[in-house]
Amino acid sequence: MLTKSVVIAELDKQLLTKLSYLTTNLEQAIVSRNSDTKSSAGDKFETSREMAQIEIHKIENEILKTQQFITDLASKASQLIITDKGAFLISIPFGKVMVNTTEVFCISNSAPITKQLVNTEISANFEYRGVTYNILDIT
User: Residue 43: pLDDT band by 50, 70, 90 thresholds?
Assistant: First the structure.
């Protein structure tokens, strides 16, 4: 059975895996940038280092975003809404997560479908973008 705690645990696990992956990539990018030796073609060297620095900056931003997701997931209230078309965790905007064999869409409070989801009761229907959803459970 799909429960909010199981979904949050899987999402947290995926976030920590992503954070580990990003940290490894950052370390490799820094080593690569620092090991780049200056050649006789000075402009080429400077361009190469600048490109590496841009990549490092992108990875650092992604790490900060992932860390914020982890913090938000642990500290903010979340709601799991199960419909006949799939499950939605209203918490952080992470996208699709597979939990056991069920797709769970992790969305934020500002996602367009969220208004429809939170303003509907169990066994009620709502339509979103031409698709009718039936609410099966809310936790």
Answer: low
